[in-house]
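Q: Could you write out the predicted structure for this multi-component system? I'm mainly interested in how the pieces pack against one another.
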Amino acid sequence: MEYFTQQLINGVTLGSIYGLIAIGYTMVYGIIGMINFAHGDIFMVGSFVGLIAVVVLGISAATPFFLLILALLVVIAIAMALTAVWGWTVERIAYRPLRGSFRLAPLITAIGMSITLQNFVQISQGARVKPVQPIVTGGYTLMESADGFVVQISNIQIIIIVLTVVLMAGFTMLINKTSLGRAQRACEQDARMASLLGINVDRTISLTFVMGAALAAVAGVMFVLYYGVIDFYIGFLAGVKAFTAAVLGGIGSLPGAMLGGLLIGLIETFWSAYFSIEYKDVAAFSILVIALIFLPSGLLGRPEVEKV
Amino acid sequence: MTALLSVNGVKTYYGKIVALRGVDVEINEGEIVTLIGANGAGKSTLMMTICGSPRASEGSIVFGGKDITNLPTHDIMRMSISQSPEGRRIFPRMTVLENLQMGAAAIGFDHFDADIDRVFGLFPILKKRQGQRGGTLSGGEQQMLAIARALMSRPKLLLLDEPSLGLAPLIVRQIFDVLRDLNQKEGLTVFLVEQNAYHALRLAHRGYVMVNGEITMTGAGRELLKREEVRAAYLEGGAH
């Protein structure tokens, strides 16, 4: 039971990171019907920006608590802003010129952008793994079993989970209640009609990329703080898993991406804990295969039927 | 009267196929003008070309004294033109209220409450349905919503593409009555594309007949209605 609880905490933490990335996949798919395969690498760029900000600001575990929280917020803000610029740029130079082209064209450039981003970071930051000393330390002991197994939730886990919940709630509000979110949903449902109502569709699509990149940047910063090592290649695996999460939840669906992320995080963690850690990626991708076969529209996706 | 909209020698292509072969249309302020013609004549293409999508490859379109031929669609639609397009194009997964909010997007929400009361006054059924998703409405309700949505941006010129398509005669009459009222009481200028030539020509001050991407006839609505060619092509054997 204690072991299970511990895995649950770990799984939810991992799932939060996947969920934040998955939102970017699902929103872009919703609005222009393409899978942005460079999104995982945007996440990677976000983690690097976060790491650089941490180093530049000189944050360490020795930083006093309130200052640390403040500094982390600054790091997150910087990472969101700069990564958003990256997301915007990728859309502007690689996808927008191909809008209206054949369906595979943006998919191919997306893979191209993914490789470009990886190589750019590899060259500019070096290919070696980048370690960072633990910054957020400490935690709480929740329970202890008779045989001495201790269930803990670390402070960084608390930060990740709380931040994810806050961001997702805020984001859901943004999409459902604001005129910007309404414009995005309108473009998703009928872009031509949206333009007939005076909506600048290109700008709305750009903003979607910006938002997705900003959320991925938060995931990137959390990843650095949680695992303590990053390299230029982390975007690939995290990206594919977040994509799996988006498909599992129902691609195009915002709550679906959140739920899918959580589930993938839990499945991966429990699989590693109870079966074999070597096969944790296989477990995650088997879910993708199973979802595509038996549940192609995902858990919360809508079937492609509409009353006319 | 000054021409609110003038379309001068407009040609539009879909790839290499000519859809409009040099169309001239003038719409004066306060008029209801109708464009009738058979399926595939290019009526909807003209509507969409006025809105900049597809773009006219030759000729010019002037609205309120300003050349809008090469403006992007979203900029044109912010100049007090609105369109209720072919097939209504209601946002299916948005509520009726959200669809109307989208209609106001071009002008902002300063007088949203007054505007929404106005369209609910015109189409009371929409008030009852305001929390319902657009895709679940009946055809008639969707058409009313499409017109209401177009009115939310306080247009000077309303472009209406086949509002009567597939609707029961009673609903068609209701919609046309609303249009006549809006025109007479508020001076709304309407450009109406219709296959239902009888109703359209009775409602309109003036009419144009389009065949194969060209305007072949023009005149006062009731006068066109009397013409032998129009009767033979668009009325006889049809309704009424």
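A: Regarding packing and overall arrangement: The interface with chain B takes residues 179, 182-183, 185-186, 189-190, 192-201, 302, 306-307 of chain A (CB under 8 Å).
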